[in-house]
Design brief:
single chain; alpha+beta; 3 helices; 8 strands
């Protein structure tokens, strides 16, 4: 599996205020999208997330997001090392993703950054 980069996940109460801070710190412009009931902004290497408390508690359990060349290859490699695929692969606005629990208990999201065509 080719890991191309890592994004840090930051859960925030006020997404607009957080976007201003992270845009200033990174020099990057936020790309906003919705994931279910959660509002997300990708700013540089950060994923800022805000939403209902119950959903945020689940999201806080994911350590980081790893960009990979191909989610299908990631599934194969993850299974080979004994990881459990918790969710996905699923299409998202920025590419297919999956969530996996590594044998040590760490939980990571993997995304292939290949946007899916919209119907």
């Amino acid at each position: 599996m080719d890991i191309l980069g890592t994004s840090l996940r930051v859960c925030v109460a006020d997404l607009d205020a957080a976007i201003a801070v992270y845009e200033r710190l990174t020099g990057a412009q936020a790309m906003r999208f919705e994931r279910g009931n959660v509002s997300v902004a990708a700013v540089g290497c950060f994923f800022l997330m805000s939403g209902p408390a119950a959903e945020m508690e689940i999201l806080k359990k994911v350590t980081a997001t790893l960009a990979v060349r191909d989610v299908d290859a990631a599934v194969s490699d993850l299974r080979a090392v004994g990881a459990q695929i918790i969710a996905g692969p699923l299409p998202t606005p920025i590419g297919r993703n999956l969530v996996a629990r590594h044998p040590d208990g760490s939980v990571f999201e993997y995304v292939d950054r290949n946007p899916q065509p919209t119907a």
